[in-house]
Amino acid sequence: MWKEFKEFIARGNVIDMAVGIVLGTAFKAIIDSLVADIIMPIVGLLLNNVSLADMKYVFKPAVVEAGEVVKPELALNYGNLIQMIVNFLIIALCVFLVVKSINKMRALFAKKKEESEQAEAETKSDEVLLLEEIRDLLAKKR
Predict the structure, then answer these.
(1) pTM of this structure
(2) Mean pLDDT, to the nearest integer, of 12-40?
(3) Burial, 90: exposed, middle or buried (Cβ in 10 Å; 0-12, 13-18, 19+)?
(4) CATH code, domain with 17
(5) Is residue 92 part of a domain?
C-alpha cells in the first residue's frame, strides 16, 4: 500500500495539481486585495460612502441597556454577499483572460510549427533535387 501511495504522489498530475492549488490560493489573495482595497472603496464612493460589507436589513435592532448589549441585533447581512459575488466575478474574469491568452499563445505556436513543417516539406533536399534532375534527363533521352 505504501508503494502505491508513493507512486500516486510521484505522478506528474498530482504534483501539477498541488502547484495549481498553491498558485490559485496566492492568486485568490491578490484578487481579494484588489477587490477589498481598490474596487470596493470606489463602489462605496459611488454609493455615497457606504461600504457594501456594512449593508444589511435589520429585522430587530439590538437592545442596549446601560451601555451593554442585552440582545444582539437580528439582521440580514446582504452586503457581504454582494462583495463576495463581485470578488468571484473578478476572479472568473481574470481566469478567463489567462486561459484565453494561453489558448492564443498555443494557437500561435501551433501555427508557427505548422508553417515551419510546411516550409521544410516545400524545401527539397539536395538528394531529391539530384534525383529529379536524373529523372528529367532520362525522360528527355526517351
Answers:
(1) 0.57
(2) 82
(3) middle
(4) 1.10.1200.120
(5) yes
